[in-house]
Amino acid sequence: MHQTISVILKRQVPIRFDEAHRSWLGGLPMMPRLTEWPRDGEGAPLHFIAQICCADLPKPLWNGLGPREGRLLLFVETLKLEDEAENSTVQVLHTTRLGSEREPPEDVPSVRHSMSGHFDHTASKNQDGVPKLWRKWPVDIVVQEYDTAKLEPEDCIPPIIEAEKLYDGAVSQKGINGTSFDLDRPLTWLGARYIIEGVLQELEKGNFKSGSDGLTLLLDAPDFDPLGREKEIEERALQSPDYKGGQFSSQGRYRELYDRLTAELSVERRVGWVDRAYQAFDAEISLFKAAKMELEQAEAAGIKDATARKGDVILSMKGVLWNLERFEGYKEQLQNVLAQFPEPDPEAALTQEIQEQGKLFLDWVDRLKNTAKCAIIEIEAHDPDAVITAQQWEDMAATLSESSPHFWGEGLNTLHKKSREFRFDRHVQTAAQEDLLDLYTQGKLPSGLISKDLIDDLEARAKYIEPGLPHRLGGAS
């Protein structure tokens, strides 16, 4: 037999807070004061991910080599790390002295994958309120013995051990980050800050202008003839003194010219946009009617499965009829909208209302921004780790629950008048999950705040091993 061993770093579930933790994932390293924080080859600080007590490692591990005193401190650059470590993005320190907990350097980027939607990826990775460290989770060192002779030649890892066997019991089939927990509010003031900052970020980015209903906010007259617009822009560009030859496009050296002509044409096309829309719709309707007639003639001639070509697209009769109905519907919908506006110029009346309602909508957004900023000021007056009551959160959320004025939105060649509420369900789910896990791993879950069923669910998920392997040290040589 060729026996060897591998060490598994198994999360403590539940966590034993009544004893000193010897090894853990995340949290802060206990490293000597004069030990420099590891950085990669480009000078970026690494993230601390684990501290291992060497005295708890079995003697046969690593063929008897490696330290058996002191601590191993593991660091990685989580935002750069790929399948292989390069440029010092993975570093392991060995220290024989146990220092005090060391805070990460100021320039360590914010982390936590569940908060990735909270990051402004166009700015620094240092995000206020988002932790610079993974939450601390104590681990037990479990020894796995196995026979290397039973491994396939291509295998270079120990046999997979099932989570049910590792924890000697039932385990959830989803991890702690897989789906949201059954919570509908934040548990701490920090969680409330995550939510409000997420709302404010979406407002600042203008994500509110497009909704899940497929409507894009209109602030001026729509343009249902984009092909005609692009053709006219190109014609004007070729006549412009700024055109110096070559291919004209919206990018590259002609981008400034393209943007200027687009702005000029947008002003001009505020008038007459209805007639242009009808002309565009009628042109499509004529094409599909001709295609329908062509396919009917082919069918009458006994040709089965005949198709028609529209540009680069090949269509069956079903596709032709669907598109014909679609453009006839666009035309009818625009006629119905215009019928709501007075003569002699319903186009002008509708355009004016689109502009007025669009401005009211933007005013509503500005009010929400100011309300969100005031909420953050209120949050900053509290200890971020303190529990926020259900009533405190309801009062804060109510200030952001004002429905918008009605606005005109553009769908696919259609116009609709709607109002919108700013929903922050996604932010609530993320913040509640972060709060629950932080309070649990810190041993600070207030009595009565969380049901036993929810804690059982959390612990079952914490035992889940995402496909493949638990955290390991050592293995087959």
TrEMBL record:
Residues 97-116 are annotated as: Disordered. SUPFAM superfamilies: Hypothetical protein YwqG. Transmembrane segments: none annotated. Signal peptide: none annotated. Pfam families: DUF1963. It comes from the Bacteria. This is DUF1963 domain-containing protein. It comes from Sulfitobacter sediminis. The lineage of its organism: Bacteria, Pseudomonadati, Pseudomonadota, Alphaproteobacteria, Rhodobacterales.
